[in-house]
Amino acid sequence: MKAAVWICLLLPLASAIVITLGGTRISRRLAGYISTASTMGSFAAAVFVFVRMLGEGAGGRTHITTSWTWLAAGPYNFGFTLLADQLSVMMMLIVAGVGSLIVAYSVGYMDGEDEERRYFAYISIFVFSMLLLVEGGNLLLLLAGWGMVGLSSYLLIGFHQDRPVAVAAAKKAFVMNAFGDATMALALFLLIQHTGHLDYATVFATSPHGGAVANLIALGLLGGALAKSAQIPLHTWLPDAMEGPTPVSALIHAATMVTAGVYLIVRAHPLFENAYVIQDLAAGLGAATLLMAGLIALVQTDIKRVIAYSTMSQIGYMFVGAGLGAYPNAMFHLMTHAFFKALLFLAAGIAIHAVVGEQDIRKLAGIGKLMPQTKLVFLVGSLALVGIFPFAGFFSKDSILAAALDRGWYGTVIWVIGMVGAFLTGLYAFRLFFIVFTGEPSAFAREHFHAHDGQEGPLSMRWTVGALALLAAVGGFLEFGPIWHPLSTWLEPVATPFAVPTHTQEWLSSGIAISAGLAGIAVAWAIYSAKRAKAPRALPLFEKKFYWDELYDLLWYRTGDLAARGLYALVELPLIAGSLQAVTGGAGLGSRELGRAQNGLVRSYALAIAAGVAVLAVVFLAAR
Amino acid sequence: MHGPDIRWYVILAALLFATGALGVMLRRSPLIILLSVEIMLNSANLLLIAFSRLHGREDGQVFAISVMAIAASEVVVGLGLIVAMGRRGVELDVDKLRTLRG
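Structure tokens for the assembled complex are given below, as produced in the milestone run.
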């Protein structure tokens, strides 16, 4: 059991090391297979842990294994501790499971790319970091994994090093994530100060209850979660991160890493419950994000960016769930979202792959006619995203919205926003679907489309997408609040929810959400498919993404630039440069004046020596 | 101890030193300046030997001998320079030799 936990964590690391050290001795394809095999091995180990855990009583499912004392500083000891409990095993299954499908997909997608080995080494490192994040047995290891997923995300966004846009996007992601890491680190410092430890159990039992300190701790953790999960106000990096290869977008920026913020809130929920204001803030920010991202997604023209905004929006739902105390529902949505969002990205990847990297939906228009299988799986993914019965999103999203109804007026407001979001989801998802996959193929698509050995894509890409489509289609049946709820029961000992909807609320929310989604689809159909209505002009507000980038440019870049210029004019030039000039000028003047004494007259030197001796003699005599 | 009292030696040495110092400061010929330096050195030697005798210790005399040796080498260098200047027709006046002024 404990060995399996370690194997699950270390296999991807081993794969990264082997690929890196192997260098050109291993072929490009072999690197991909090593990476796939290691991730699948991790998944097998995770399944093993899960099956063993099933055989145990609900109370005894927490396994802590410490290999060594990682960090000892004075009275503080932090072990290299792994924790396997109901929550982390669920995350392990998602990360390693969806991860292995996406890595296997990459073998086909990255084929022929320069530096495939580097790609597979990076993605192995990412899987390792993500597993460290979810398996870490104390907050320090969680932070270590947190930073490392940020690093691997940076490396993979900037994988195409020769494209300045990709490099800029990587830097943007890294800086915003580093901001979140810093606020998290500050929260951990406060925790060490007040509890003396970072072990989950100790910290949760002894951290301060209410008051400014509890609020600050929760706020710091929330800052990390917001940055990692691309929620307002730290969300602007995610759309730019689409510069990375498509499987990276699927794995890191849809299925796993960006949902780490939700995991953090659920994992550290006692700390957030100690500071309910901050927890409510998390829900509010999630609601704001889901609405804003849905609106922006309506006008994007890059297929991956539309899906990226959809990811932000769906994570907004998860934040609503976690913030309102419906932890199992948030985790359930995290899981189904990992299925259908990875599916959408990978299906989009097949289409992009088939037309040699074009991502503009206006150029891709009508490609569905050439790729019927891809069209089908994309339709499954879109239906799951919108939440149409019986696809996965229906079960998970609605249960979050139902839980919102259980939380008074605040919850009701969020419920309304969530319903508007559901309508928008239907609209933008099917705008994308109708434009790209229905109608006659555009000239560009017709000209550039090339089949892969008579198929729509390589085998490794087709079977993985098929598997994800299956998961997205049936994954939701894991739980349906009014009738059966094995997932909630499973997570109950780790994260006890305090927002539990009644059956009436469940049925009501499901009914309204599905109607809103269908309404969105209908509007999308009316505008984009039937071409009966002229597409309305996009609001500049949406096209400019609510001016967040401009705002940050104004707030940080321009003010920083202004401050630097001001300091240059007021401090640098007069004080620093001026003082240096004074020093050099003074030295020059002094030496010029002193130089006059050296007049070249030997006799005057002799006189000076004699006079000096005389003075010394007088001084000695006087001093005696 | 035989011979005059120590104060006579000191007085003589002081007179010699003053003579040499004045010579260095007042005369212009490098040759005379060199001579005056020698006089100053020898006044110091005189004191070294006188006090060495007074205290009955030899180290002062050893010092005197090494001062003589160094003075001899210094004179060699100095005279060599002066002869070289003379051969080149440089005017032997230290007030005119001020190329090294600052």
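The longest strand of chain A covers residues 63-73. Residues 304-543 of chain A form one domain. Further analysis is deferred to the final report.
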